[in-house]
Design goal:
heterodimer, A: alpha/beta, six-stranded parallel β-sheet, globular, B: alpha/beta, five-stranded parallel β-sheet, 33 strands, about 40% helix
């Protein structure tokens, strides 16, 4: 068995295509769909819920939802909880990954509270950002979220996953993230079920590092296929 | 086959996700040692000296035990030669313009930048400390220190006019102190124009390397001389004639011993003692962040010592759980491995830690050890000790590396009492998300440095020092510069040692006095008695001493004794906190009120001075200058402390000038009014409560002023005890609860004061028997007094949300 990515993440409209393509390739990688008005989340709750249901129907087994920032910024924690509960229900069997969009939440205290609420409402993963905000996965934010995950685990015994996204472009960056998880949560979190890196442009760099490791030379970008 | 092998290995790595080794090559360190044929001599006068017939101590890799090099140990004659070289260099170096010294320091910073790999690998290889700390912490800081002090040297002529370099500085480092501690002191010394002789622990190549780098670049040979030597040689260097100041870093007992040895030898002594730090964790703290603070303080190889940890009881369980979980992830290993948290520190440090842990266990403490620690001998696990009874010796003793000694507290006030109840006062951090509480604790702690929600931050701009047994010397910032400066025109410090002085009997007995006739002279005489606790009281001994003025009039003043000093100090302690908390303006207005009162009494004071032999004109002038002194200190009060800005830190660092507490002053015989006022005013202005011994020959003027003090100042703030000066000096110098002592009397008295101050390591300021020109602005009212009248505290306030 080789080493693969943990999932393929696409917009809802492409879920069908992705599922088909992966099936044709004989590959069992799950398909994840971003839903709920990605990336801004500024649509009606009704349409957001419908989006989730449709993506699940199309065969997505993981759903990435964006939380409503307004609820965080105005301190409506209970409403936030209720909303994520509804997402959870709409997902059915599919995994729920909740994007906090931490770059837009204000102080770290808000990040911590939002993380805990997302976990209490049944998220399988909490995710830093959509990758579309101006500020994405930063280490201070990540530490706060990881500590929230640890606190939640200590209190309930449930392990919730973590996914940083945005701005992670090099193999070196990804190593820093791996050690961060290892230090804060321990080895048990270093599995695809509990830790993902959301990074569309990381793959090329990993390939270049492997190229260097094998040949002893640094690759030009044209030495490797585009990703 | 090979291909599948590689494939499965990659998979294994991916499944296990263990840290791999990240070895740092130390080839360049070995290559440098090879250039010396693995035998390091002394770097003196700009060249390597390898005198014959010297002991060589082998410098070993603390992990493998491999012999890396041999270091020749200095002997007395080597020390003398080094001091001679530094003296010669001082003549040229101190005469260079500040700009030239600045250029030199900048160049040295550049050299360190260029050879940093050699520096950090050598240091990590030899000391066993994690290379990460040396590489990312110490070496950049060493470079910043040079740059900061280059700027200070450049500005010296203008900013520090009226001050001159002291001369040859003797620097003594004991084992846990590293090359960085040397740099903290060498940089300001060189910048200000002093030259240095450093005695470093027996096997420490890094300071020698630095001396070589500094020496090859220097326009004057011999500005920095470094030699390895046994601790026993410390006193020899300190008492070498020509050494004007001794800076000592080491253990408390060593510092006390050195203080005693150096009494009367002339050199000024600056002590930086002990390595322990304190961390105060309140219930509003971000516990996870605080746990990282604990790691920084004790288990990261950043600090040389252990940590005393105070945890609020309501978060005790949670905190201990988090600490223990964090400890489990700490990694020990070879210091040169880049992914290691803690290295090994050699056998001595290990024995010390082992001893402490055994003792703590036998005294009822619980010990928790964890961490990924190789089982072979050179490593010591990160250790948490808790549950010690508060009175157990281990709960009071200094905590060694890498031990954290945790104890609970219930309220912030209790925490403050526990923290301030320690004999040491180095550094502390306060963890609280409540600003008001954090500041309350930060201001209340009696230590040199306080970090709020951080631990172990350092910067060349920020003065770092301590109080109580941690010693009262500063490095960094402006305060660090004054350690190597003296007011221009100060005569060279020569030994004033009186070999025959018997410390056991000096001032022990008061010579008996008998009535020598009826009291004469104009009335009204000042009230009879000792001025203690705001009123005139009869002395405990119920006897008096006669005072005869130059016109033959006879007076009797109370003969104070040890009980009176005790009472005075107690009264002063009652008044001290309230006075210290007064706003500078309130203090100033009282000083001005005293000045006005003096003005009202001017004829009486002047005539009393005349009867003591002053010319009428001089007497009038003395009263006038005294009034002005009080007004001047009242005015100067306003600019106390300021904010510092540190590169890379968001938020300010406050430089506070805090009162010493109870300050004892023994006034000189001469200038009975002016000297008394010139010493009283700055002491009060800086928020201290005072116990004064007035002029022995003419104490009446001081008593005269006390009548106004009684009506103006809070009771106990100013206490005046008359009597036999030597006896009172003895009582004051041996008193453990006096925070500082100024002595202006005989050479013998100065020597005794220096010797006796070793007891509680109170800072002392003595005149070594030399008279002082109190009527001159520089000596009678200069900033030197201000420096001695308060202590500096740095309060770090990082911000963020």
């Amino acid at each position: 068995k080789g080493i693969t990515t943990a999932a393929v993440c696409v917009y809802p409209a492409r879920v069908c295509d992705a599922v088909k393509a992966l099936k044709a390739a004989g590959c069992s990688i799950p398909v994840a769909a971003v839903a709920t008005g990605f990336p801004a989340g500024q649509t009606h709750l009704k349409t957001r819920l419908e989006e989730i249901r449709l993506a699940v129907e199309d065969g997505a087994t993981e759903i990435d939802v964006v939380i409503n920032r307004t609820l965080v910024l105005t301190g409506q924690w209970e409403a936030l909880y209720d909303e994520i509960r509804q997402f959870r229900k709409a997902c059915g069997e599919a995994h729920l990954k909740t994007i906090l969009a931490t770059g837009e939440l204000g102080p770290l205290t808000n990040v911590y509270k939002a993380s805990l609420i997302a976990m209490m409402a049944g998220s399988d993963f909490i995710k830093t950002s959509t990758g579309k905000e101006t500020v994405n996965a930063t280490f201070p934010v990540a530490i706060v979220m990881l500590r929230a995950i640890r606190d939640f685990f200590w209190k309930t015994g449930n392990k919730v996953g973590f996914k940083p996204a945005g701005g992670i472009r090099t193999a070196k960056d990804s190593l820093a993230w791996l050690s961060l998880i290892k230090e804060e949560l321990g080895d048990e979190w270093l599995t695809p079920e509990l830790f993902r890196i959301g990074a569309s442009s990381l793959l090329s760099d990993i390939e270049r590092q492997i190229y260097h490791h094998v040949t002893g030379r640094y690759a030009a970008y044209h030495d490797l296929p585009m990703s | 086959m090979a291909a599948t092998g590689v494939g499965s290995r990659a998979r294994d790595i991916f499944t296990a996700l263990e840290y791999g080794p990240v070895p740092e090559s130390h080839a360049c360190a070995l290559a440098w040692l090879d250039t010396h044929n693995r035998l390091l001599g002394h770097y003196v006068g700009g060249e390597w000296l390898k005198p014959e017939h010297r002991n060589a101590v082998s410098c070993r890799d603390p992990i493998t035990g491999e012999n890396l090099a041999n270091c020749l140990q200095a002997q007395g004659e080597d020390v003398a030669a080094a001091v001679e070289a530094a003296r010669t260099a001082f003549k040229a170096w101190s005469q260079l313009p500040g700009a030239t010294r600045a250029r030199y320091l900048t160049q040295l910073a550049k050299v360190i930048l260029m050879h940093q790999r050699l520096l950090w690998t050598l240091e990590s290889l030899v000391t066993g400390r994690a290379v990460r700390e040396v590489r990312d912490g110490d070496v950049p800081l060493a470079q910043q220190l040079l740059q900061y002090h280059a700027v200070q040297a450049h500005a010296q002529e203008k900013a520090l006019a009226g001050w001159e370099p002291r001369g040859v500085i003797g620097l003594i480092l004991s084992p846990p102190f590293s090359f960085l501690d040397m740099m903290w002191r060498v940089c300001p010394a060189l910048a200000m124009g002093c030259t240095v002789v450093a005695l470093v622990p027996p096997a420490s190549p890094t300071p020698l390397l630095l001396a070589q780098l500094a020496g090859e670049l220097s326009p004057v040979p011999g500005i920095l001389n470094v030699m390895c030597g046994p601790a026993l040689l410390g006193p020899a260097l300190a008492s070498e004639p020509g050494v004007q100041k001794v800076a000592f870093c080491g253990a408390v007992e060593e510092g006390q011993a050195l203080r005693r040895t150096l009494a009367g030898k002339g050199a000024e002594l600056g002590l930086a003692l002990g390595t322990e730090s304190l961390l105060l964790l309140t219930d509003s703290a971000d516990v996870d962040s605080a746990v990282e603070g604990i790691v920084d303080a004790a288990w990261s190889d950043r600090s040389p010592g252990g940590l005393r940890l105070l945890i609020q009881e309501s978060v005790w369980d949670e905190t201990v759980q988090r600490i223990q979980a964090r400890m489990g992830r700490l990694r020990s290993g070879r210091g040169l491995d880049g992914a290691v948290d803690m290295g090994a520190r050699g056998a001595t440090a290990q024995d010390l830690a082992q001893h402490y842990v055994h003792e703590a266990q036998s005294q009822g403490g619980q010990v928790f050890q964890a961490g990924d620690v190789p089982s072979d001998s050179p490593f010591f696990s990160p250790t948490l000790v808790f549950g010690l009874p508060p009175a157990a010796p281990c709960a009071q003793a200094e905590v060694p590396w890498p031990v954290v000694m945790a104890s609970p507290f219930r309220t912030a006030k209790e925490a403050l009492a526990l923290a301030n109840g320690m004999p040491r006062g180095g550094s502390a951090s306060v963890w609280s998300e409540r600003l008001g509480q954090a500041l309350e604790l930060g201001y209340g702690l009696r230590v040199g440095t306080v970090w709020i929600n951080a631990h172990g931050l350092r910067d060349p701009v920020v003065p770092t020092g301590g109080c109580k047994e941690s010693g009262s010397s500063w490095h960094g910032g402006q305060d660090g510069l004054y350690e190597y400066l003296q007011p221009s025109g100060t005569p060279a410090r020569l030994p004033f040692l009186c070999e025959s002085l018997n410390y056991d009997t000096f001032g022990l007995v008061v010579p008996s006095t008998v009535p020598s006739g009826p009291e004469t002279g104009p009335s009204p005489a000042p009230p009879y008695g000792l001025f203690i606790g705001g009123r005139f009281q009869p002395p405990g001994g119920r006897s008096s001493r006669p005072i005869q003025d130059s016109s033959g009039n006879l007076h009797y003043v109370a003969e104070g004794g040890v009980k009176d000093i005790r009472g005075a100090v107690e009264a002063a302690h009652q008044a001290a906190p309230g006075w210290g908390m007064q706003s500078p303006r309130a203090r100033a207005s009282l000083l001005w009120a005293l000045a006005a009162a003096l003005q009202r009494r001017d004829t009486a004071l002047a005539s009393r001075l005349e009867r003591h032999g002053s010319e009428p004109k001089a007497a009038k002038a003395e009263v006038e200058v005294s009034v002005r002194r009080l007004q001047m200190w009242g005015t100067q009060l306003q600019d106390q402390g300021h904010t510092l800005q540190v590169a890379g830190l968001r938020g300010p660092v406050l430089r506070l000038r805090e009162p010493l507490g109870v300050l004892a002053v023994v006034c000189p015989d001469e200038w009975p009014l002016l000297a008394f006022v010139s010493l009283l005013a700055p002491a009060l202005a800086h928020g201290n409560a005072v116990v004064l011994v007035p002029s022995g020959t003419c104490p009446l003027l001081a008593l005269e002023i006390c009548q106004d003090v009684a009506t103006l100042f809070p009771a106990g703030l100013v206490n005046v005890v008359t009597g036999d000066q030597d006896h009172l000096t003895r009582c004051l110098a041996l008193h453990q609860d006096i925070q500082a002592l100024w002595y202006f009397g005989s050479a013998q008295g100065s020597q005794f004061v220096e010797w006796a101050s070793a007891g509680n390591l109170k800072p002392v300021w003595v005149n070594r028997g030399f008279p002082r020109a109190w009527d001159e602005e520089a000596e009678g009212a200069g900033s030197e007094l201000s420096l001695h009248a308060a202590r500096t505290k740095a309060l770090w306030l990082p911000m963020g949300d």
